Structure prediction request, 1258 residues.
Amino acid sequence: MIKAAGIAKSFGRVRAVRGVSFAVEPGQVAGLLGPNGAGKSTTIRIITGFLPADEGTVEVAGFDTRHASLDARRSLGYLPEAAPLYPEMSVVGFLRYRARLFGIAPRDRARAIGAAMERCRVEAVRTRRIGHLSRGYRQRVGLAAALLHDPPVLVLDEPTSALDPSQVVETRELIRDLGRTRTVLVSSHVLAEVERLCSRALIIAGGTLLADGTPAELLRRHGGPARYVVEARDEGRKAEPALRAVMGVAAVREERTDGVWRRLAVEAGTDAPDLREPMAAALAGAGVAVRELSARRASLEDVFLRLMRTADPVREHAA
Amino acid sequence: MSAAGVIAGREFRSFFRLPVGWVVIALYAALTGVVFAAGTLQPGGVATMRDFFALSAWLMLPVTPAISMRLLAEEARSGTLEALVTSPVSDAHVVLGKYLGALVFLVAVLAPTLAFVATLWLVSDPRPEAGPIIAGYLSLVLLGGLYLAVGTLASALTSNQTLAFLLTFFFLVALLLASGTRLDFVPSWAQRAFYAVSIQRRVAEFAKGIVGLGDTVFFISGAACFLALAWGALESRRWR
Amino acid sequence: MSAVRRLGPASITAATAFAVIAVAVVAALLGARFDARLDLTASGEQSLAPRLSGAIERAARAGGGFEGVLVADRRSADPQAWRAVGDVLDLVARAGEAVRVTRIDAGSPGGVEEYRRLVDRLVERDRPELESQSARIAEAGAFAAELADWLEGTLSPALGHVATLIEPATDADASNRRFFEERSAVARLASRQLLDAARRAGAAITPQGGDVALPRPDEAAPILADALAERAAELAAIAQESARFAVGGSPPPAADAARPVAGAIVPLRDRAASTADTLRRLPRPGVLRVAGALESAEALLAIGPPGGGIAAVDAASLLAPSESAVRADTRARAQELVAGALAALVEPARPVVVIVHGEATRFTRTLPVFTHAIERLERRGIDVLEWAPVLEQDPPHVTDRDRIGQRPVVYVVISPDSSASSRTPADKPGAERAATLGRALERLADDGMPILLSLNPSVMPTYGQPDPVASVLARFGLEALSGTPILRDEALPTGRVVLTDHLVIPTGGEHPIAAAVRNLGVALVWPVALRRTEAGESATVTELMRLDAERGAWRESQWLRLWQTPRAQRPYLPDPPVFDEARDHRDGPWLVAAACERGPLRLVAIGSNNWHVDQVAFERREAEGRLVPAFPGNAELLEASIWWLAGQESLIARSAEARSTPRIRPLTERDLLALRWGLAAGLPLLVLLLGAVWRGVRG
Prediction:
């Protein structure tokens, strides 16, 4: 498991990370989410021990990264961004090197390497030079290297960034599978990925943690009001007043029209129940023909945007 | 210790997988070959490698920074340093492993010069003495070890390989120049200081066939100090 | 990542600079604590030989402050030899603070400057002594001029006056008158000689121009001393005669006139004699000892601390190429020579050499016969005197030079030409002079004095008499076959030629002298064989050198005509000596040099006479564009014999067996070109090819 408490880090006058605290339990796949420059990479690097934090502590698998650094690192499998590998080595050669580096006993090495290669589907290219592999394969080799020593904690920085859609699906499956028994922290700026992959989302922007919870919780907490889409033939403009009259409707807005059909966006108030039925009834009562009435689910993106709007627009600078 | 060995092994093998390794070996073979062919190989001349070894202090100069510059700087540039530093290997092992890998590669760089020894063996009458030749090679390894250690430090301080190369090269040149020549315009305390740190005269002693314990200690302790500083440079990220 | 590297290139450069300097200092300090050195050379040539380390130790115990300076023109030195000597100097420098080492390349502009400074420093050390001696000589010169004036202006007229007072009435009167007339003329002549001597002495103490401008009181003193001594002798004779005439001579007026003459002469004669004595006692300042070496800018100087002396070792034979008649190992010889030079400085009791000969005049300082030998000895701190037993009964006093009575005296004997006839009635024939010399040698041996005896072929045996000069050998159980010198012949296109020069390459031995000349060519002219007899029970005779009989050499009895023929004309002699079964002997190889000991008495016998003269021992010949000593063994033999006879064997430089230097065989142009290109270009290309193949194979 990963436990971060009050981490802060500055680079000169820039405060990259401040006051970040969270905990990820085993069996969870947590997503670290945020725009570029939010402090994601810095946080990841602090957790993996590449950078020291100015303040705060980090525990990985129960080991303090400052005082039990080697133990912490041994319990960690890390895939850095862009999967940096040695281009001149062969895949299996590189994995053997990593295996030796991590102190895997000689008799277990072949098995561990085989297992990692199989899991990440890089068997086919085992003898190829890493420099000759496509980005996607390289990513998978990197992942295999991170899995080699069967670590209880995995930290993956943008694991699906270079993959094609089918590879993305495969990798997602793999990560989810891994997450069943381990603690996984995935960092990404692709919100949709995080939404599908993670059971826990940590939203970070401007160096601070803005939100922390399961997607459902976040949606609930920050998803903002429910939204509905209505497409009605409404020359008489009777739809709006009818909708507004429905209990729980907060605002109605026209998105577009072609003169005959109008597309309206309806925003519900907080904690409003499903308003589709009352809206249908209201529209029918107004005699407006409806060809679409659907609820638009809030996404993490919405959550994110909302949070960004409420957060300080200007990044604070250290005094 | 085995972690350093693993890193050293990888480093050593990578030199042969990349063109730079072979180019360095060929370059050194060419430089020394010219010196040997034009200088030592004179019919009727004395069959000794002494001048060759004495010159090697200079011949090593273009070559060792090229080996050491990539040790840490390249990894920093390409991002693989991150993976290395986050693996359960202490920084000391990283520095030591990289250095040892380069040092063993240096021995491979020196290997072609054995052809000169063999040539001398064949064409001279009577055979040249083995003792001074052994001492000479020992001096090359010690000297190269010192140079590589300087280069390791430079490589740890910057991710720019060219800067690492230039730093190493110019400081070694300056050190050699200061300790080799007679600078009459320098006050005598400075002259004595330069004499004390002189690399040139130590190499000349080895070339004569004398293995001095003090000289050996000089080279080894110098290399150790530079490696310690390189380790410090690497470590400093942990608590900066 | 780049955010971490906050240091810009400038600070990185500064950091690296600081690191390099700091580490270099730390490493140097650590390294300086260890002194152990492992010499991997097969001959151990890079380690200090025990004699040299011993000499350095002694120098350290004497308080240190010694200097070793090699001065030579690097361009004219053999590069291997230069390096070898340089290595030895490095060894000495490493051995500690007691001896500081400098190398001056007299061929480079910087070196010339340095050398001048060195010379100035040495001159400064001895300046007080030089000045005081020059002053003494100037005083003596003034006295000589005064005396000359008195002789010319007072004595000569006085004697002439006495002569005029004698009427040549009887034969006795006539002879007396002639006597005083002649003495008057002698006085005038003496005056002129004194003035000349004073002038020459004055010139000698004026520093000459040139690179090394030194006053030479050491040259001026003997000039004046000899002149004054001779005049003193003459005056003594005149005074004696005048006194005798004054008592019983006739006519009385003349006798009266003669009386005051005697009285006037005596004090002046005494003063002249004592001045000559004082001048002879002047010690030679160190810088003048090595003046010759300084002038030639080629020597290995050992300089003691202030108040100590200076010694010089001939650098030319050290730096000569090893193909010359020196088959000895240069590095080892250099070590030995440096050790010897140092030891000579530390050892206070340097010997005095007295050259003993059978000629009727002193010639060692005037004739260019022993100039180089004397210079070389004086450079090593040895004082050289001369003794002509034909002129003086007793050997010269050395007590003035040897106040403590510790300096050993060695007598170096040169045989006269026994076949020489007397040229003037006053001269004695060679045979007689040989007999005088022989008696002098017997007396020396009876007194226990060490002798280096050089033997000439002698005509005495043909008259059935023993060679008087060689008689001193009998007590050692040795005899010289000086009646039959060893000749050899050569067949030239012009005909058969008989030669008297032989080259010996000694093979060495346990004896220090034999070890010193091992493998160094020794030239012997008119060699005489030595042979043991039964008479030497309590004596030890060690063989030093043997002359081979290979080239058909033989002992010839009819040698006199060849001997008396000038060298240049010998090839044209109509019937040169030829081997005759009946009278001559082919019984080589012959012993030609031996070291003898009997109790405390030591003697070295060399069966040749002119082996140490300048023309033989210091002859140079050209080898590879350099002038090298032709027979380096001769000079070494002289020095080694003197040290051994003086009982100071530790100062003898041993000559080591040369290890042949590994050399590259001559190669054909084609082979050489192939090798050079193959190594310089082919090897790198091979490496690149190997790399390409390797990488191709590995994928």
Observations:
- The two ends of chain B are 26 Å apart (CA to CA).
- The longest strand of chain B covers residues 210-212.
- Chain B is about 80% helix and 0% strand.
- Chain B has one domain: 3-238.
